[in-house]
Design a protein that fits this description.
The protein contains 18 helices and 14 strands. It is of the alpha/beta class. The strands form three sheets. The protein has a six-stranded parallel β-sheet with strand order 3-2-1-4-5-6, sandwiched between helices. Strands 11-10-9-12-13-14 form a six-stranded parallel β-sheet. Bound molecules: uridine-5'-diphosphate-xylopyranose.
């Protein structure tokens, strides 16, 4: 099937590459000509495990092509996926201007009847707006709008695209459903859960999922504060909660909180939408407040450990919003860096992938070429992102290098007893602080 994908960001690129991998002929377009040139040469503009290999394989197989010309991508296509960004406006509402502009261009470029699939996270009712825009600017072709929310996680985009937890298709057209069944036939045949529903439900479900996952994280972070006050251990509490299949263990890790380009902005947009619909759900705002509190709680620990922060050197381990990506958008690590810098500390960050993006965002942030260089002379190290390689830290070497052996762990990456045995004062999240000489009970 001939498919156009508009937008080659964190959703559009994995979508284009995986649709090609399913056997379709895909033309992906983006207005950024430099990005298109890089992609055409087989290079991904951001780090995503396995995506380079798949991109090169599909380019080589001739199933995937990139262009800056939307009209060229859409002409002759049976399906067009819209994967452009929906950034937040100052009010928190999603800015849907890019979506409208793309719909207008698609309408003008279509040479035949077309199924237009909205993948971007949007407020309920957007599909109707898309349909209206396509009809206004079209030149005879019939358009069927489908909503297919994307649930892929950054860092696992390839895995989530090729074996998704579920595929959701919202449409009010039997023809639209039929075409989408063809698009995803290989995944449906492989047993992937496939859900057909109405458009508004599909749109709302995406916001409902992201808000609920954010809620789980903020719940875990509130529990962390309670555990710190009561002497309980939030990791053990989360394990006990997670062993109940009705709750589930995923997204119950307390820490610095959630970041990235989905949870913070989707929660704000959902809260805004709910208000516009005439309902109030203060729970959503409380989730965001608890998320901000998680960063503040970490700053308080650093202050507790170091007293005044002026002229103290702090090694910030991890800068991306989560491991496995170089994405620093809404990264709690950078929010923390900004807070520590504002209190006069010298912050030296290290991240396996996100250093350039982080310094572009926070100018005063210094970086070190490796983990141990970041730790050298540090009065305190703060774990902000749980990159797996941090777990292999040579604790004896780290202690030797640091000015004070103090670790504040915003991701519970280390074993408290091992930290104490290695001679560290260790502040985990939602677990008792341990000092050198501590022995596990
Ligand atoms: C999320 C959704 O998981 C995905 O389904 C949706 O399509 C896009 O948004 P993503 O933003 O890639 O995906 O990351 P996710 O793995 O969900 O983590 C989001 C943030 O929450 C990260 O900052 C992560 O560190 C944090 N997090 C996650 C926690 O603090 N605790 C947890 O238990 C899980």
């Amino acid at each position: 099937m001939r498919i156009a994908v508009v937008g080659t960001g964190h959703v559009g690129l994995p979508t284009a590459v995986s649709l090609a991998h399913l056997g379709h002929v895909v033309v992906a377009c983006d207005s950024d000509s430099e990005k298109v040139a890089e992609l055409a040469a087989g290079r991904t503009p951001f780090y995503e495990e396995g995506l380079d290999d798949l991109l090169q394989a599909e380019l080589g197989a001739g199933r995937l092509r990139f262009t800056t010309e939307l009209a060229g991508a859409v002409a002759g296509a049976v399906v067009a996926f819209i994967c452009v960004g929906t950034p937040p406006r100052a009010s928190g509402a999603a800015n849907l201007l890019a979506l409208e502009r793309v719909a207008e261009q698609i309408a003008k470029a279509a040479t035949n009847d077309l199924v237009v699939v909205g993948k971007s996270t949007v407020p309920t009712g957007t599909a109707e707006r898309l349909a209206e825009t396509l009809a206004r600017h079209g030149n005879g072709a019939a358009f069927t709008v489908v909503s297919s929310p994307e649930f892929l996680r950054e860092g696992r985009a390839v895995e989530d695209s090729l074996s998704p937890s579920r595929i959701v298709i919202g449409s009010d057209s039997p023809g639209g459903f039929a075409v989408m069944r063809e698009v995803y036939a290989p995944l449906i045949d492989a047993g992937v859960a496939y859900i057909e529903t109405d458009i508004r439900t599909a749109e709302l479900a995406k916001h409902a999922c992201n808000a609920f996952l954010s809620l789980k994280i903020s719940y875990a972070n509130a529990l962390a504060r309670i555990c710190e006050l009561s002497g309980a251990d939030v990791v053990a509490v989360a394990d006990i909660m997670g062993s109940d299949p009705r709750i589930g263990r995923a997204h119950l890790d307390a820490g610095l909180g959630y970041g990235g380009y989905c949870f913070p902005k989707d929660l704000a947009a959902f809260s805004r939408l709910v208000g516009e619909l005439g309902y109030a759900m203060p729970l959503l705002d409380e989730v965001a407040r608890l998320n901000d509190e998680a960063v503040e709680a970490c700053v308080a620990k650093v202050r507790d450990a170091l007293w005044n922060l002026e002229d103290k050197r702090i090694a910030l381990l991890g800068l991306s919003f989560k491991p496995g990506t170089d994405d620093v958008r809404f990264s709690p690590a950078l929010a923390l860096a900004a807070r520590l810098l504002a209190e006069g500390a010298r912050v030296v960050g290290y991240d396996p992938k996100a250093m350039a993006a982080a310094t572009a965002e926070v100018g005063a942030l210094q970086t070190a070429p490796d983990l141990y260089a970041a730790l050298e002379g540090a009065h305190c190290a703060v774990v902000a992102t749980d990159w797996p390689e941090f777990k292999d830290l040579d604790l004896a070497k780290a202690k030797e290098l640091m000015a004070f052996p103090i670790v504040v762990d915003g991701r519970n990456a280390f074993d408290p007893a091992a930290m104490a045995e290695a001679g560290f004062t260790y502040y985990p999240t939602g677990r008792p602080v341990v000092k050198p000489g501590f022995r596990r009970a």
